[in-house]
Amino acid sequence: MASGEEAKREHEAGAQSQEAEPLGGPSLSRTAVIPQPVQLLPESPSEQITRRERIPRELLPPLPPLPYREPKALRVQREGVPDLIVPLYPDRSYVFGRAPESTVVFANDAVSRQHGRLSFREDHRWVYRDLNSRNRSFLGDAVLPASGDERESFHVMSASHGWVVEAGHVILLGNGRSRITLLAEVPSGLVAGPRPRQGGSAAAAQLERSVNICARHQLPVFILGKSGTGKTFLAREIHSRSRLDGNFVILNCGRLPQDTNTLQSELLGHVKGAFTGAAFARVGKLYVANGGTLFLDEVEFLPPPAQDFLVDILEGTGSLAPLGAPADTREPPPRFRLISASKMPLQQTRLRPDLAQRLATGDVIILPTLEERREDIPNLVEEFLHRLKTEQQYDAAFTSDAIAHLQHLDWPGQIRELETTVKAVVAREVAARAIDGVGASRMMITLEAVKAYLSQRKLGFGTSSEVTGGSTIPVPVLARKRPADLTEPEIRAMLERHQGNKTRAAQELGIALNTLKDRMRKLGIA
């Protein structure tokens, strides 16, 4: 009888100790993690013992921590629109909210303008931080069923610190109608991308074939092209089509530190306590790319110490230990697909000859300029508009004369400049419609709207230009002058800018029409 009462007291004490253990609150560290379910190991019949003979729980060896399940994509669910799949890249941050500049825009009023941000931390973990949202963020598990208001079974994500998230987790923004699910893989064929293209240039067709070839082998790829021609986009596309298990990691060679220790921390990582402020271990970018793709952007600016590091990695020699590790530490070399890009041929760079040879031993892709593929501009504009619709819920289209105008322009900033132009014109139209109280119906972007934006932008740069037959005629933006100080070239350039219209030329010069005609007579301008 005594033994039965003793067992009952032991059972009640165990239950009280479990109730006293916090289940969902944030930890005292700067990063909170959802508690993992307790793993129970089954007992074999030969190992079963009576309760009085059991080893106390505190003396049992701790269970090994569960491995981190790194997410590779997001499934974004918003009320009234189809689901959106967003691939995750370690070099990017993802902002969610109602603000138009967010990475993914949620139109629901329960979502704040800037609700939360997801970013890749240097210890190789994805971290979500609530940005002091009005209705808060909630974290839960995708496999756990919920009845009623599922927020009651989720963890409130306080804004005081970041929360480590992994594949299988669900984040609710304000309520269950705006949710983000973290996925272990990018679902094939479900990524929101451009619509099927019609036509296109021969250069675009050759580029598509080159990408498909590179996606089917693991040789290095070197991409040569002007700034803004899409080198980073092309590298991402090769990585995506290759279906590699690892990450796509960008190493901006022009921003690498020159200090040897800082460079070692950036490329190979550091251990906790390696230097003041090293609160936790960091995974170097070369190891973040393990099993995936390392993209060397602006490789012509790679500093000599980083070149030595990279050659050691490719040859499998040298010390690959993180900063602050013991001297006898030996790390296995990371294995990754190598893609590099430059604005100049490799022989014109200051790279080590043996490194330059390695970068170009596989495929070499020469990117054409936008001027060499003007017939692709309608497809590119359609792609940018489709992205705006899926990510920011802007439903817009350009009129045919507006597209034709864009095709005749020169684009010094190449595809990047074209994309920013499309985004800016659409955003301006959205703002104007909001002021006028017009609903969120489909917007038609007119030629006048495109010209108005381009004119303001050119004035902001300090020069103006008018498109004539695919070329631009620079016209200086004149300070207000006395009519007698206006020169013949200045007046002729202004007239050409306004296609001979004297009234508009006089208005921009800030003089009366008759004054302009009188000055033209004196200078012999017909």
Explain what the structure shows.
Helix content is 32%, strand content 19%. With 526 residues, the protein is α/β, with parallel strands linked by helices. The protein has 4 domains: 111 residues, Sandwich (Tumour Suppressor Smad4), CATH 2.60.200; 162 residues, P-loop containing nucleotide triphosphate hydrolases (Rossmann fold, 3-Layer(aba) Sandwich); 93 residues, Helicase, Ruva Protein, domain 3 (Orthogonal Bundle), CATH 1.10.8.60; 49 residues, Homeodomain-like (Arc Repressor Mutant, subunit A), CATH 1.10.10. The protein has a 6-stranded mixed β-sheet. A 6-stranded antiparallel β-sheet has the order 3-2-12-11-8-9, with no helix packed on it. It is globular and about 105 Å long. 27% of the residues are buried. About 12% of the residues have low confidence.
Under CATH, the homologous superfamily of the largest domain reads P-loop containing nucleotide triphosphate hydrolases
Q: How many whole angstroms does the radius of gyration measure?
A: 30 Å
**End-to-end separation:** 121 Å
Query: What CATH first level of the largest domain would be assigned?
Result: Alpha Beta
Largest beta-sheet details:
6 strands, mixed
CATH topology of the largest domain: Rossmann fold
Strand order of the largest sheet: 1-10-7-6-4-5
Proportion of beta-strand residues: 15-25%
Number of domains: 4
The dominant shape is globular
Judged by helices, strands and strand pairing, the structural class is alpha/beta
Annotated CATH architecture of the largest domain: 3-Layer(aba) Sandwich
User: Mean pLDDT across all residues, rounded?
Assistant: 80
Q: Unreliable runs, pLDDT <50, ≥5 residues?
A: 13-52, 190-196, 464-480
Number of helices: 14
Quaternary structure classification: single chain
